[in-house]
Amino acid sequence: MTKQRPLVGLICGSGLGLLADSLKNPELFPYADIPGFPQSTGRLVFGEMKGRSCVCMQGRFHMYEGHSLGKTTFPVRVFKLLGVETLIVTNAAGSLADGYHPGDIMIIKDHVNVPGLAGLNPLTGPNDDKFGPRFPAMSSVYDKGLRCLAMDIVKQMGVAQFVHEGVYAMVGGPNFETVAEAKLLHRLGVDAVGMSTAPEVLVASHCGMRVFGLSLITNKVVRSYDDEEQVNHEGVLEVGKMRSQSLQTLITQLVGRMDMNNNTHT
Ligand SMILES: O=P(O)(O)O[C@H]1O[C@H](CO)[C@@H](O)[C@H]1O
Fold first, then answer.
1. How many Å lie between the centroid of ligand 1 and the Cα of residue 132?
2. Which of 74, 139, 145, 260 makes a 20 to 30 Å CA pair with 30?
């Protein structure tokens, strides 16, 4: 049991679990002890960031682990019931855009939900009107005010040259992309690809949360048959650890400066 009533929720991507360690006065709840959560390692961490009450998923659930999309996104609805109004999602992703490099950060402007286009959507099934409408709009899902604030912060941090704004695509995984798939995603206008985030964002947006998303670029996605480079998960985690300090600074500042009544910032 916690008495905290967080307004901000944070989901840590692969290799980015350290983000939760910046919470002050933490209270920890292993997923295995929380009813309805998939039996999995990882935990919810409640605590304060810049004096603001937050809850953080240290470890997320993925479709490729065999969880239903309902289970994968269940924590987001728990966040909503706890009072969370703003969701910050982070992930590790491979880059397709020219000019992106491992270690760069991408502020997510929009997404392509590849499984969603094929009908794999956490909002499928009877709609629970208590949470949101049957047919939610998704044309402005990643909050513009928060994206502008994040850009201001990265300029002040002096790291703007490593930060982009772009389009994330979710694929089902667990395999990384073939060259043909990479070419297809690139032609679709996708800048970075991963195996998470879109379902959580859909559920958060459906229930009226403000959403902000960040991808850490951990590898280049191979788009040429002449390129012998091979992505691997260990490499993804390593880049995550290397860059989690900058991400932590960015997120802490964002949480400290965001307007808690949604939309604008100080
Ligand atoms: O999206 P997150 O969970 O950050 O992790 C990304 O990195 C893992 C692959 O290395 C996959 O889980 C992919 O989705």
1. 28
2. 260
